[in-house]
Amino acid sequence: MEIVHTPVMKNEILSYLAPVSENPVMIDCTTGEGGHSQAFLDKYPALTVIGFDRDRSIQAKAIERFLPYGSRFIPVNGWFDEELAKREDCSADMILFDLGISIFHYVESQRGFSFRADEKLDMRLDENQKLSAETVVNEYSEEELADIIYQYAEERYSRRIARRIAEERSRERITTASRLADIIYSAVPPQYRHGHIHPATRTFQALRIEVNNELDRITPALQEAVRVLKPKGRLAVITFHSLEDRQVKWFFKNKAAQDGSITILTKHPVVATDEECRDNPPSRSAKLRIVEKKGDADYENN
Ligand SMILES: C[S@@+](CC[C@H](N)C(=O)[O-])C[C@H]1O[C@@H](n2cnc3c(N)ncnc32)[C@H](O)[C@@H]1O
Question: For ligand 1, what atom is nearest to the CA of residue 238?
């Protein structure tokens, strides 16, 4: 059976975002398999979706899914911060970010995103990039590794884990996700091995963030997104990680205070309903924030 990613907080996003012009355009900055994009294409027959994704394999799935929609779906392969920077001012009615990776990456990509799999340690979304998880694990200094694991995943045993990785790699290069997971398991205290998450979860998350430079792309992309939105257009961001959510929250707060170009529509982040959390566990950590770009009249009234 094929496992397809379930779009998180789809109904909430549909209720906040809507076209503001006659020939509406939506930019889905993280199209993945296209769950959110499809919901919008189906709801608004005049809508065109420009779908970014850096990962060619998952993008191929979206392209196939949207064949029946013809030219209403325009795929763009690239990082969202770089692709948004190329777009014209005031050219999108709605912009969506659904950060992170998809279930596809864990179960199908064979790039070592899952610590349960005996796969090569890779984790690159961009197949042409040099830096992979294998490089980070084997070539970063012990201190750099510990810092990444602590900063990007708030892993309290980061130093122990980095030390054990350094010991093990001096014996033999670490090339698979399952070996790395075993090393991490052996590095943490026994009582930490049987918690509600596997002890390798956080370290794997930190490696993925480092390999794809995920955190450094968010604020520049949001800056561009506000520029690209049409007046009265809306921008929605779903995050799964406190460091991501903090960036989004502060960017919106500062932008609203500094130049008044946006209105924050979600004072507190929207979270998934209990029912969604039960049916789709990844939605439990999701936070949704939405802003609206002010129209010309709003500026005059300021
Ligand atoms: C959580 S999934 C999106 C799922 C999608 N909303 C759906 O409903 O099917 C995030 C997608 O964004 C892509 N991605 C992550 N960071 C990116 C970035 N900085 N630039 C472009 N694509 C990115 C990943 O490859 C992944 O396919």
Answer: 1
